[in-house]
Sequence to fold (451 residues):
Amino acid sequence: MAERMVVIGGDAAGMSAASQARRRRSVDDLEIIAIERSGWVSYSACGEPYYVAGYIDPLERLVARSPEVFAQMGIEVRIRHEATAIDLDHRKVAVTALDSGERAELGFDTLMIGTGARPLRPPIKGAHLPGVFGLHTLDDAVMLRTAAEAGPGNAVVVGGGYVGLEAAEAFHSRGWKVTVLTSGEAVLDRTLDPDLGLQVVAAMEHMGIRVVTGTRVECINGLERVESVGCDDETHPAEVVVLGLGFRPESSLAGGAGIGLGPTGAISVDDRQRTDADGVWAGGDCAEAAHRLTGEPVNFHLGTVANKAGRVAGINIGGGDARFPGVLGTAITKVCDLEISSTGLRPADAIAAGFDVVVGDAHGTTAAGYWPTAAPMTIRVVAERVGGRILGAQVVGGRGAGKRIDVFATAIWNEMTADELAWADLAYAPPFSGVWDLIHIAARRASLQTS
Fold:
């Protein structure tokens, strides 16, 4: 009789694990059933803002595999089903069919938890009003695009993180008057140093996107639908409000079953993606990973991490031996033509982790200075004072700037020093960089301060 693998969560980590396990174990050996509470599986949440903007059409382009395709692989997917409890003693998952309300119990031999993250929703008066949206699922994206297409008008985005900035671009590109409200002193305050975040603010203001920093939204106003945002002296008119206040790991189901959670509030796993419960695995936004530089548990909500973690879990469930090598938190986004990226540790983070660091800054352009489309760019490199090992980098600049972060991520991954990177044989042609890329210059400036 075949063993049964139950997957809770039908997106990146869960379905990557299911696919890898199926490649290694036949239908006769392993039955796989995936439970997903939305109507979609294997979709790109990262592509949602660009669907709202109208850059991507139709919506199905964001879906990698349908339930029908998974069925052909021997993986049963039950959409619009929600796992409500896990019973480790009896090896069962309680499941509710959301459309019919029917409840059932699903036995398992192996359990993969990929429940993702939930949007942070602090108590804001009026957040229930029509015209107030989140941006988490594909259904959210459909509703928000419908609202965007009904404009233009006034759009207020609450939150200055990745989702907030990408939502701001989506509405700005459609001709809306956009205001971004953030409680931090700048935007992207969890990934950029404040002065670089202020560079992004200045660029957004130049584009015509208003950014209000240091403000905490406590109420959204309106009668039958949203009309404005703000309780203080200054209110902001709005026909649409987008809440982009960040996410928290969706680990309550696991925690309620007695599965161990780590200091981040996410599910604690080892480097094979095993939890502390026998036969239970986890990965993605709901689970922790080890930071490659500090060794400490972290919880990054990145599609890259989720897909890799799911792959590791699936290989191991399938009988292989894969290890998750850790994360750096490498991330990238854009606002219109401005590209922003980061990897590793910021200076303050590195100091807090016990490193003695130096910082190398370089200001230049994305291409040779005389090239017609050359745009301003800033690169910051963080390195250890003794030895010069690179610990982190941040990039802010025009088109062509952002993916330079991959050079730094590769350098950090392989423990390169700033001096080694300063002499790296990088490609050059005037449309792409100066003869000394700004990567070289920033690395050299950090290297000169090391011993």
Observations:
- The first strand starts at residue 3 and ends at 8.
- Residues 303-317 form the longest helix (15 residues).
- The radius of gyration is 23 Å.
